[in-house]
Amino acid sequence: MACFLKLNNWVESLINERKLSLGHSWEILPMQGDASCRQYFRLESTGFCSIIVVSPQERIDNNIFISIAKSWKRQGINVPEVFHVDEKNGYMMLEDFGSVHLYDCSKPSINMERYRQAIRQLHKIQAASTQGLVVFDQRFLQRELQIFDTWMVQHQLALVKPSLLDNVYALLIQNSLEQPQVTMHRDFHSRNLLISDQGLGVIDFQDAVCGPLAYDLVSLLKDCYLRLSDEQINLLINEYLRVLNHSELLQQPIAKSDFVRWFDLIGLQRHLKVLGLFIRLAMDEGKKSYLADIPRVLNYVLKVSKKYPELREFDRWLTQTMMPVVHKQSWYQR
To answer: How many CA atoms lie within 13 A of 306 on its CB side?
Structure first.
């Protein structure tokens, strides 16, 4: 209630200062949030609609979001315009792209044209300037991978971290660093892409970094919240590479076999991190809905671990040690 009162006062102050023009009646409605500590609201009035984000400054640097939003907008990426900011209270008023996510359009069947639109936005993101972005370097990667062994292996499953994980992590880090480093959204999936009147809109980009080429595509095609078929993934990789290899982003074309290895292994890095993250969100923050997505993410991990000889020992540990304990978890459904 206190939050609503403060937001109403902020909107009224913008109206009184003639920075915002609304009809005689308007209201602020709560929206479903994401995995972060941000809160989202929709401001509705006759002929006007916008999103209000409450993002606590003591936990999040909102200037990063604002800076990236303005920069990407100038570079032709379809991100929301930032209308107004209250820096002290962590309020931002943004362009409203609506409520229909790519996720909503992908059930019960995948809309391939929407995915092609997403890949077109991805090409623009990857061509954007990396200036000022945090680098997805060895320390960053190691920190993310440790979320898996801290939260999934040790905290949730009560297993001892096997020493073989260090070799797996080293392989995944090497794979990441050997790829071309580009602007990376870092959470480019179906729940962060909105179907708007302006085309496919991109949101939740505040964690953008300079990182490996294949990361965002694997986030999109091996989505933690829904599954594309192997045939659909292969087709979309082909289409992505066809445009990429004729772009100015690379000094020389990339062979598909090389790219698929990058794609698989950076996907393994992401999905191991996500397994630990989903456990932390569920157990530490009470966001239990993420537990339902863990089996899908585990399937991605198991599929890659069986594909590459370098991961044979890891695959054996997964299937013989970790998965039997996972099967006993109350939240696990095969």
So the answer is: 7
Q: How many domains does the chain have?
A: 2
- The tokens for 237 are 């990789």
User: What are the residue ranges of helices labelled H in 223-311?
Assistant: 230-244, 256-285, 294-307
The boundaries of the domain holding residue 276 are 104-326
Predicted confidence (pLDDT) per residue in 296-331, tens digit: 999 999 999 999 999 999 999 999 999 999 999 999
Same domain, 86 and 119: no
Query: What digits encode the pLDDT tens for the residues 111-125?
Result: 999 999 999 999 999
- Name the E strands within the chain: 26-31, 39-45, 48-54, 82-86, 91-95, 134-135, 181-184, 193-196, 199-202, 209-212
Does 333 fall in a domain?
no
Domain's final residue, options 74, 95, 116: 95
Per DSSP, the three-state class of 44 is strand
Block residue for tokens 């008023």: 93
Domain co-membership, 78 together with 199: no
Computed on alpha carbons and rounded to an integer, the radius of gyration of the chain in Å comes to 21
Q: Which amino acid is at 171?
A: L
The last residue of a domain, from among 48, 67, 95: 95
DSSP 8-state secondary structure symbol assigned to residue 217: H
pTM: 0.93
